[in-house]
Amino acid sequence: MGKLKFSRKIIISILILFVLSLSIQSNKILFYPSSINIVKGENKSLDISFPFFLDISQEKENVIEASYNGTETIGLKKSYKLNGIDAGEAEIQLKLLGFIPVKNYNVNVINRPEIIPGGNAIGVRLNTKGVLVVAVTDVIDTKGHRFSPARDAGLKVGDSIIEINGEKVQDAEHVVNILNNIKDTNIKIVVQRNKAEFVTEAKPIQSIQDNCYRLGIWVRDKTSGIGTLTYYDKNTNEFGALGHGIVDVDTGGLLSVEKGKIMNAKISKVEQGKKGTPGEIRGVFYETDNLVGDIVVNSPYGIYGTIKEDNIKFIQNKPIPIGFKEEVKVGKAYILTTIDNNSIEKFEIEILKIQPQLKAEQKSMVVKVTDPRLLDKTGGIVQGMSGSPIIQNDKLVGAITHVFVNDPTKGYGIYIEWMLEQMNTK
């Protein structure tokens, strides 16, 4: 009986270990992307652990060549090598114990894109779609009574007013003119909130302050600032910059784009970053003679648009290949940015940490400025450097997005892959 109990304990222990291993590997599989990109002429290794096996029998001829690399087997882990033969698509399948289908992988063999890294200082001017509500207040009428037409109509901070009585709103001054022409008549307002539109009604109140008709709102119609160009694609004339979206300083919401421009900027002053106080690059730009391109997308991962062909001279660098997120490594790299003399310079950094991301996020990697010249001039990463391209192993792998407030020598970067996806959202 003792031996039987001991044997049962061994069997149960083995089953528990098997189930635990299966659970761990299953979780890894669920979070592994179903689409795998391989550059033509290059290869990628996949490490698969027991009890899973990769079925490479479904590979598409002349697209990929898949093989089991027995020499790289470690313990219960097997290494498979996928070679990109020619541009196209293929499918491979993961199986439990070699015969139960678990997950399909779409393998895309692609030509490695080449784009031109930026580093140019740019002025950004963005006109919002309609006007953005930044505050909702009361209105005191000519008899001293207090009203809040906007609040009664359901308007909130962060809403965009798109139309009033069928008339498309152009800017803040236009809203004032419309209300004073309509006076104390009920109006229909088209409002955009979280990308969805709805219609509400309100009645303007004549204010005791200046006899003008008001809804009880403060609005903003434009914003501007300094940033850095990340890349330019000469095949499409498209650009990406900043690595993060433009948000309203009061509402914190992402601004919708109606008309946006980027302009050539001249650096006028650099304020060093210090612990607890982010530094800043200050510059000047004039739309009349420095217009470079149009902004068509303001996403959480940067601003995007097209550069006019007449302004290609604005682009100083040559095309280089991009590096995919799985190719980014901890170690040395450099950024391109403009901090003085309006010329793009190269500064050394170190990539300290890499985040395994399956979808677009701003904080893909942690970087640290190591270049003595940049540290002496700026103290590290400062406002205005957002969008500075990150280059590693002669490939454009990402862009600077944020600075650590308590340590300006460090900051975050975003993978270039996430930025290149954003023009498809327009």
Automatic annotation (TrEMBL):
Highest rank taxon of the organism: Bacteria
Annotated PDZ domain ranges read: 119-174
What the entry lists under Pfam families is as follows: PDZ_6 (PF17820), Peptidase_S55 (PF05580)
Chain ranges of the Peptidase S55 domain: 196-426
Give the InterPro entries listed for this entry.
Answer: PDZ (IPR001478), PDZ_6 (IPR041489), PDZ_sf (IPR036034), Peptidase_S55 (IPR008763), SpoIVB (IPR014219)
| Record Gene3D superfamilies | 2.30.42.10
What NCBIfam families would the database entry show? spore_IV_B (TIGR02860)
This chain belongs to the protein called Stage IV sporulation protein B
Tell me what organism the protein belongs to.
Tissierella praeacuta DSM 18095
